[in-house]
Design goal:
CATH topology of one domain: MetI-like fold
Helix content: over 70%
Strand content: under 5%
Distance between the termini: 51 Å
Order of helices and strands: HEEHHHHHHHHHHH
Oligomer: single chain
Largest sheet: 2 strands, antiparallel
Structural class: mainly alpha
CATH superfamily of one domain: MetI-like
Length: 296
């Protein structure tokens, strides 16, 4: 008997056609436009000259770019070093069931609902020494605090603002990972007389590894592209203390209207984020594989 081959229905691709069109207009076409500007010198709206990799070379030699990159790296890794442990600690302290759990979840998620520009405005008022709670409290403690004139205090204020705004995201992801752990694991640990640290080390942390990996990647990418909050709070100052890569790019593209260097820097910016996320992802996978090998 000959086998009957059923025809393949390709009409299902029509269902994702709107998504493909949206991605093309929102991502692919703008990216190609940036690539086009990065290899041309736009003299006028109707005239441009092909310059090849000239803009990439000039951008890579820019000392201000190097300084902004170092500030950005220090800020992003500081964010990860604070928010990940703090979010896990917050998730471990949250109730697991009942009406208290619902109330705590809503309260924890409140800061995530605030728009980025509003967050900057809130902390702009919060840090003022005349009417702000943080500013007045620090002055009352004898600290000469001014985020608008002290570079280190401005940088720390932006870091504290980001920790306040985004630590709940890490906490909610870690909380979801904790909720997925079967009760049988805790019962077995109780029978074996395991300590709280042993339960965290060998049960909770391995089960949270997947969501923590997502949290690390999300927070790193988002912190590496931070713009609105420090722009509203400090405007990138004092000096260039809080001028991160995204604001440096905006100054190039909008402030100075150097479309060629700005486009070249945009592509370099994209590749830096892609490369660092790839390194982080592979490092976390390797650590997870080594932990599993050690436990077995």
């Amino acid at each position: 008997m000959s086998q009957v081959i059923k025809p393949v229905n390709q009409k299902a691709w029509l269902l994702i056609l709107p998504v493909i069109i949206c991605v093309a207009f929102s991502a692919i076409i703008p990216l190609m436009t940036v690539v086009n500007y990065s290899v041309q010198d736009v003299i006028s709206p109707t005239r441009s000259v092909f310059v090849g990799t000239e803009w990439f070379s000039s951008v890579m030699r820019d000392a201000d770019l190097h300084a902004a990159l170092w500030r950005q790296l220090i800020f992003s890794f500081s964010v990860l070093a604070i928010e990940i442990p703090l979010g896990v600690l917050l998730a471990l302290s949250m109730p697991t069931r009942g009406w208290r759990a619902s109330i705590v979840l809503v309260i924890v998620a409140l800061s995530l609902l605030i728009p980025w520009n509003v967050v900057g405005t809130i902390w702009q008022i919060f840090g003022r020494t005349d009417i702000g709670l943080l500013g007045r409290a620090l002055v009352a403690l004898g600290i000469d605090y001014s985020y608008s004139s002290n570079p280190l205090q401005a940088w720390l204020t932006v870091l504290l603002m980001d920790v306040w705004h985004w630590t709940p995201l890490v906490a909610l992801l870690a909380y979801a990972g904790l909720q997925s752990i079967p009760e049988a694991y805790y019962q077995a640990a109780s029978i074996d007389g395991a300590s709280k640290f042993a339960i965290f080390r060998y049960i909770q942390l391995p089960k949270m590894r997947g969501v923590l990996m997502i949290a690390v990647l999300l927070r790193f990418m988002d912190s590496f592209m931070i713009y609105t909050e420090p722009f509203v709070l400090t405007g990138g100052g004092p000096g260039d203390a809080t001028t991160f890569l995204s604001q440096y790019l905006t100054q190039k593209a909008v402030g100075q209207f150097d479309l060629g260097p700005a486009a070249a820097f945009s592509l370099i910016y994209f590749l830096i984020i892609l490369m660092l996320c790839f390194i982080l992802y592979n490092w976390m996978l390797r650590v997870g594989t080594q932990d599993k090998g050690g436990q077995s």
